[in-house]
Amino acid sequence: MRALVKAGPTEGFELRDVPVPTIREDEVLIRVRAAGVCGTDVHIHDWDAWAQGRCRPPFTVGHEFSGVVERVGGLVTSVQVGDRVTAEGHIVCGRCHLCRTGNAHVCPETKIIGVDRDGAFADYIAMPASNAWHLDPAVSFAIGGIHDPMGNAFHTALHGTQLPGATVLVTGCGPIGIFAVGIAKAAGASAIIASDVNPTRLALARRMGATAAVTPAEAAEAVRAATHGLGVDVVLEMSGVPAAIHQAFALVRVGGRVQMLGIPAKPMEVDFATEVIFKGITVYGVVGRRMYDTWIEMTQFLRAGQFDPTAAITHTFPLERHAEAIAAIKSGEAGKVIFEVSGDR
Ligand code: NAD
Ligand code: ZN
Known about the structure:
CATH class of the largest domain: Alpha Beta
Largest sheet: 7 strands, mixed
CATH topology of the largest domain: Quinone Oxidoreductase, Chain A, domain 1
Order of helices and strands: EEEHHEEEEHEEEHHEHEHEHEHEHEHEHE
Helix content: 25-40%
Number of helices: 12
Distance between the termini: 13 Å
CATH superfamily of the largest domain: Medium-chain alcohol dehydrogenases, catalytic domain
Structural class: alpha/beta
Bound molecules: nicotinamide-adenine-dinucleotide, zinc ion
CATH architecture of the largest domain: Alpha-Beta Complex
Strand content: 25-35%
């Protein structure tokens, strides 16, 4: 089968011919139909300091995907051959304190497909059956292939927040930020201010339902106007850029909530006294998707047609054109980039 492989400790990917994975008794073999390309894949492609510290080549990359179950192990009862699925890409131990208290998204034993073991940019992937997630008939393989980053956005937008009627600031309109804009809209937020430095991405945020899409320099005024000077109830921090993180703390209202998804590239200084403590705010660190409350919420929003991410997918490539997919992400001109891995065969 074809697989996009991180072959060694240098820049780049190689499309190789490799054996179809074998499955264990508790695993399923999935024929991949669509697969989302993510910033993490760019880090692995570029072989930056994070990738060097974390990844052990050779392995197949890719962690966002959908497909059709082709084979099931002898112990599998929850999934059948022919099922249309996506999957939670974080494989957790199921036994630790966190897993057993409903917090598997922060299991210390987590292994991520396409990072710590073979991933989804291939004709087939082996997954534990317990990670497979059935797609509704109405949900396309393309949308199935982006459940992982959409789930990040659902987790950030909905966990511990009360969005009906709320005023929301989304800092950073990359793929996950623009999903979050659409989710906040679907969840009934009354005002959604989106900020980014990139005009293409601000246009996407408008398409996804932002009531105002502005540059960081304009964000304070937009928040003042939308909240009569109070500040927003909720900030969804989707950039990881220190200036945006400070702005999140500055523009949330006293007693509000800042949901932090974006990952700063290096340590940064925060004035906890003025930015956090005396504002009485709650800060929530987002890791992946909650298992499986986030998946249930996401499925229900999609099934009802309340949230439609289609407009966020701006580029689709076959696996052979992987270099163009990486370039599209790096250009900053893309929303979500996906691979169409296989059609009906
Ligand atoms: P992305 O890099 O495509 O998006 C970030 C956006 O922030 C870009 O559009 C950029 O132009 C914008 N930006 C830059 N400076 C800004 C500023 N001062 N104010 C507002 N916006 C600004 O990334 P993405 O794929 O959408 O992911 C978003 C973030 O989430 C990244 O930091 C990523 O590493 C992180 N992430 C976290 C998790 C998690 O589990 N916590 C999972 C996936 C991704
Ligand atoms: Zn665990």
